[in-house]
């Protein structure tokens, strides 16, 4: 008997997601994309809280890094409570744990950082001693290098929490990923987009990653959601991060973008005080993930040649 169309793809898929408004937006975006590919599939979302959402009093580097945002979702996959996990790619560890695949990378939103402030139009307008909120060592290092007269204060929590603290008057300005603000319809809060030189984004910023168990067999069903130009760019970025230890204990930036058919990349490693900076750039014709990795590798090598190793926590 010929299979009915519905039996040629899963009849039900469960997406594991964090419960923040941005995470749920992202999960719903994946849900809608899967529904449009597989109209007869019942696509559900399983929301959950992660350790990264719970621990708000410390910088991420002190509590175990960004992996905290993905662990509980991976457990849901292992226990069969969900089939796929949707993540901000920026939060996905550079080396996937054994048994898990980064099965799909979707088209990227704006990768840049955004300047958000009630009273100031851009960083240059901020007066001496103005308080800028960010818990990202990368953003802190770049701010200290460019604007040493500003005061940097920690800022954690989901997007709404961070905006709430700004509105409450705790900071004169905050720096956030533009992608999150745009996805939640909060683009109007952006006063300025920070230029990628010198405010190079973090590896994977603005892209969505979908994780599955390697043995799940559903990777093929996710293929239509994959965006090859984004995949190649973030593959180069994640290679730089991986080569340099892939942690968030050190200010590290890696960004690749397409220009006239070539992949252009820039990467940054520095001290938190912004006084020691290594920066590298490269351009290559790239059409496969292997070539993207080679581009990332050459940029990482360039950084190491410049002495980046002295800035890194001991490489394992
Ligand atoms: N570190 C947390 C995190 N992970 C992903 C985003 C934003 C969305 C994205 O990069 O896709 C954020 C918030 C921020 O950096 O302001």
UniProtKB/TrEMBL annotation:
InterPro entries: HemC, Porphobilin_deaminase_cofac_BS, Porphobilin_deaminase_N, Porphobilinogen_deaminase_C, Porphobilinogen_deaminase_C_sf. It catalyses: 4 porphobilinogen + H2O = hydroxymethylbilane + 4 NH4(+). The keyword rRNA-binding does not apply. Pathway: Porphyrin-containing compound metabolism; protoporphyrin-IX biosynthesis; coproporphyrinogen-III from 5-aminolevulinate: step 2/4. CDD domains: PBP2_EcHMBS_like. The modification S-(dipyrrolylmethanemethyl)cysteine is found at residue 248. Residues 13-214 form the Porphobilinogen deaminase N-terminal domain. The keyword Transferase applies. Its EC number is 2.5.1.61. GO terms for biological process: protoporphyrinogen IX biosynthetic process. GO terms for cellular component: cytoplasm. It comes from the Bacteria. Belongs to the HMBS family. The porphobilinogen subunits are added to the dipyrromethane group. Tetrapolymerization of the monopyrrole PBG into the hydroxymethylbilane pre-uroporphyrinogen in several discrete steps. This is Porphobilinogen deaminase. The lineage of its organism: Bacteria, Pseudomonadati, Pseudomonadota, Betaproteobacteria, Burkholderiales.
């Amino acid at each position: 008997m010929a299979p009915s169309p519905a039996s040629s793809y899963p009849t039900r898929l469960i997406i594991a997601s964090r419960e923040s408004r941005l995470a749920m937006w992202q999960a719903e975006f994946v849900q809608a994309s899967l529904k449009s590919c597989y109209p007869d599939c019942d696509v559900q979302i399983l929301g959950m809280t992660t350790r990264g959402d719970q621990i708000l009093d410390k910088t991420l580097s002190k509590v175990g890094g960004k992996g905290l945002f993905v662990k509980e979702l991976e457990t849901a996959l292992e226990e069969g409570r969900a089939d796929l996990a949707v993540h901000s790619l920026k939060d996905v560890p550079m080396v996937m744990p054994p048994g898990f695949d980064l099965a799909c990378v979707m088209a990227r939103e704006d990768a840049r950082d955004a300047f958000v402030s009630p009273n100031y139009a851009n960083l240059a307008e901020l007066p001496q001693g103005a308080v800028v909120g960010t818990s990202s060592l990368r953003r802190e290092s770049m701010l200290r290098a460019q604007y040493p007269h500003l005061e940097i204060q920690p800022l954690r929590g989901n997007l709404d929490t961070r905006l709430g603290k700004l509105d409450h008057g705790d900071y004169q300005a905050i720096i956030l990923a533009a992608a999150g603000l745009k996805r939640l319809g909060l683009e109007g809060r952006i006063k300025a987009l920070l230029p990628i030189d010198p405010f190079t984004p973090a590896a994977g910023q603005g892209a969505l990653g979908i994780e599955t168990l390697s043995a799940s067999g559903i990777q093929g069903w996710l293929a239509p959601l994959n965006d090859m130009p984004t995949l190649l760019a973030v593959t180069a970025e994640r290679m730089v991060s991986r080569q340099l230890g892939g942690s968030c204990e050190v200010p590290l930036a890696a960004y690749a973008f397409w220009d006239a058919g070539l992949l252009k990349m820039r990467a940054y490693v520095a001290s938190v005080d912004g006084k020691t900076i290594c920066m590298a750039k490269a351009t290559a014709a790239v059409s496969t993930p292997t070539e993207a990795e080679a581009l990332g590798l050459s940029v990482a090598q360039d950084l190491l040649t410049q002495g980046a190793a002295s800035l890194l926590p001991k490489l394992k």
